[in-house]
Amino acid sequence: MGCRKQTDRITLQVGDSYLTSHLVAEYVETGMDYEATLDRAMDDLPDLDASDDRLDVPDAQAQKDGAFTRLTNLSALGDALNRDPEHIHSAIQQELGTAGQYDDGRARYNGEFSAADFDAAIDAYIAEYVTCSECGLPDTRLVTEDRTQMLRCEACGAFRPVAKRQASNDQTDRPDVEEGETYSVTITGTGRKGDGVAEKGKYTIFVPGAEEGDEVDIYIKNISGTLAFARLA
Question: Is there a single domain that holds both residue 157 and residue 66?
Answer without folding.
Answer: yes
